[in-house]
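haha ok so turns out i had the wrong file open the whole time. this is the CORRECT one, sorry everyone. sequence first:
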Amino acid sequence: MSLLSDAQVTSMQTTQDTGLPGTAVIYQRSDTSDGMGGYTEEWIAAGTADARLQIMISRGDTEYVTGGQVTQVLDWWLTMPVDTTITAADRIRFGDRAFEVSYVNNDESWRTACRVECISMNEESARQLPAAAATPEVGNPYGLLLLFTYPS
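then structure:
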């Protein structure tokens, strides 16, 4: 016996979708032969999705030294509608920021949204992605509180 009905899960998904103020552009890699036995990597916009971006609370040491400078690695959560097609091999542009996807919650029960863990890309890597036209709002770093009520 399921604790939640399909109608209740659908209602939660609809509620979750109302809190997605920006637009994410999803990119997939395309390898094209260079005619000399190698290939050229290109990132192609595969689609867009309404989205909300929030920084993940730090989980420890996120700084390292590269090129004689201290660099910080930031993890982010991107929330999109539950039916969004995305994999850990994809990249995302959200406004002026670019991200590499590291995890997608495709195997969770009662998913109310597609939650993607992603890592900020450096400026040089981000140049591989065409600029996005969307100007999103960045969400509250502590998340959006959603309350669900059901008739008895």
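Residues 24-126 form a domain with the Thrombin, subunit H fold (CATH 2.40.10).
again sry for the mixup
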